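hey so i finally got around to running both of the ones u sent me last week. sorry it took forever, my laptop kept dying halfway thru and i had to restart like 3 times lol. anyway pasting them below in the order u listed, first the sequence line then the structure token line for each. didnt double check formatting much so if smth looks off just lmk and ill redo it

first one:
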Amino acid sequence: MNISFMAHSLKKLKTNCLTLTCLLILPMQAFAFDSGEIEVTGQGSVVITPDQFSLTLTITERGRVPSKLKALVDKKSNSVISAAKNLGIRGTNITSARVNLRIVEERPSIQVQGIELNRARQGSVFIDGQSINQQSSNVNDHKKPLFELSRQIMVGFNKIDDYDSFLEQIIKLNVSHISSLSMTVEARGEYYQQALLQAISHAKQKAQRMSKQAGRNLGEIVFIKEMSSNHYSPMYAEAMMSDTSPKVHTSQVGSQTITARVSAKFRLKD
């Protein structure tokens, strides 16, 4: 009897606990429905092809006389700008004002750690046309520093074909450095607005499915927040061509995806 009584008590206790748990949960669920709102997120994307391109190249010369270096750099710079204008590129798409001049630290061509001379033959050893005594006293006064002068030129293109033609020309000019190609979209703001509208529609579709599953009807939108920003990082592509190739390489720009995200809140109707 005792065992049967204990089993019956445990069963009754379990039933009471289950009932108490339901009572605790149900008010929370009722409160969620009483709020009469549902909040969701949405995302939209637009795939586009870049239509604006820019290339930055550097012309560098080294020497002892800055004025001569400037003349050499100016000559190459003019050739680069002429090559761009011959392709129909407007002057507003060419920037060539950034110039840099620095002193290059040179390492001595001969490093002498120790030397021994007889006094009678002193002065019979020459380096760079001077005796050791003369050179040790005059080398710091007469040797001019080594300068490096460089100029950066940035050229913008509206067509990728112009970039290929321009690259073919400037390689012949022996420029010092050619950067990667930057690719952007001119009407990016308009495409982002399209993606934003898609994100709102996506949020509404999600809210409709969720409210239907909950047995409610979806009402008007009461709150919307943009979760993304129209911030853009330009894409880059390596500029690669080969003079030994029997066929000239044609650059391919590919595509880009502009994405927008929103958070939206809708009313629920019975």
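and the second one:
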Amino acid sequence: MLNALFGKKTTMPAKDDALPGRADPIPTAEEHFLFHRPLKSPVPEGMEEATFGMGCFWGVERKFWQLDGVWLTMVGYSAGLTPNPTYKETCTGMTGQNEVVRVIYDPAVITYDDLLKVFWEGHDPTQGDRQGNDVGTQYRSGIYTYTDAQAEAAEASREVYAESLRGAGYGPITTEIKPATEFYFAEDYHQQYLAKNPGGYCGIGGTGVTCPIGLKA
């Protein structure tokens, strides 16, 4: 994913060094390729939102759109410095932005703990600024929370999963847990990329260690 072109950037830029970006959003898709709902829909009443970074956002989005209770998914950039960045800018490592997936879901059907379980098991959260062959700060592991309850659940799940990973011989978790900042939509072709390109590459992969949360009774 353009690593060879832009180099492997694993150091977050200082604010003064970050690319300037732009005031206006970059163009993106009008609707979800699979769900045929407006991609910029407001969160419907009774539903909630969650944002995760866990490597290449193509594969991450697919993990979440496949879940019952997920109403909408979208990919973009967040948790960084440059406003309204492009994909090429993000790949330079000079925006500080992470490749993330924003999920709108029905908590009556799927809980936040269920989403956290998919998050932890769907990638290796001990790899730092990397997932597989994808290297750079834009591939870092992150949970970006919207409420105090989400923050508490995320922190608790990290502690639980860290113990499971230690028992399996893995190192410390590097996942950042922070309040969600502005979400910037990625370009049209990135939205639901693996639905449009089923054979497309994505470097994420889990550890094979089960996360003991989000299990329904």
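quick thing i noticed on the 2nd:
Helices lie at 3-6, 57-65, 87-91, 112-121, 148-167, 193-196.
anyway thats it, ttyl
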